[in-house]
Amino acid sequence: MTIHKVPLESFLIYGSVSSDISGSELHMTTNATINTLFSRTDTPIKSYIYLPDKYKLPFRIDMTVKIDSPAMYLIIGKGHIAIGTDGLDNRSITSIVGEEFKPRQHKANNNISIGEFVHISVIYGRRAMQLIINGESRYYSKKDAYIISPLLDTEFRDGFELKLACDKRTLLTLASFTIIEYEDSEPEFIPESASAYVLPPPCLSVAEKPTIIYCIQGLEQQLQQTILDTDKYLCETLKKSMKFKRKIEGGYPYAKITYVSPLGFSYKLSISGQTMTHSMGWIDYNTKREQEKYGGIKKADYSIITLEKLAEKSRDFANKMFFQMKECAGCYGYCIHRNHYEYNGKKKISCGGTIQFKMFPSEFVDARKVIEAIDEIVQADTSV
Q1: Which domains occur in the chain, in start order?
Q2: The overall pTM is greater than 0.90
């Protein structure tokens, strides 16, 4: 048995990542959108921190880590384990030997408390693998593809690479990282949880028509109130100009609340228990029928005009919103949602021009500023 207590300064940077060590903690964030669908290629994430060495099975990884918003990813070989992703994540685990793209193969409860340090252990033995969070078994399997894979004696004969990644703008704080290589012995597993984790349904339903309060009940109180205030602003204050219509899918703990304007603009809240994200953008119409109805892939796109409007009050804020615009990460290969934008001398290939926000009340204030600017543009344009 070999125990590697990894010095945090051993981690190296690859791609669009900012990282620093302060005291006994490593802080990292990703500065560009990453591909987290795991639906086409092995380990598609292109921005991460990593260790220069490889580690041989069987091994155990222990880390103490904190994230301020969803989500983080432990990348091992050609597979990964996602932590704190949306409850509808269909591929929260993929095999470390790769070539595992079918959704919903692993029933893993990867929920963690946001903003708090958690202890995560991942064990890869010769006969089983396990995910443990704060001493609780969250996933256990004797059927992972790597266990019987011939690639262990060929491609991975020298061991597996280890990487850490997080979603764009998520702050990941790493306090410790240890790897134990067991060589000729087998890691010790802990008993599985008494009740098996049940995957949520693969898609959300609109049949039950729940209230917003019901959908957001798991969120912190201040955040709940911010969402209710935002709903009132969109549906009442902007009723005559933007003419938003609200659609609620799912319920609790998983829900999506979408506000759609006939101008071709939408604002979406995705809620997963105690976490959520929100985003806005000019709608891309996917079907030929929609494109014929609305005159193209987009009915309108005021992305750059909106940034210019925001810059009249604050150039820094406008630049910030351009930075938060989602980059195209090549999720599905060819994509009709790829759009080219240029603002303030900078160019970006974006996934639909979507602007993404984190789960803080202050970010709802930012989202409202953007919508207010759009509303001003709409009211001033008599042709709209």
Answers
A1: 2-181 (2.60.120.560), 212-380 (no CATH)
A2: yes
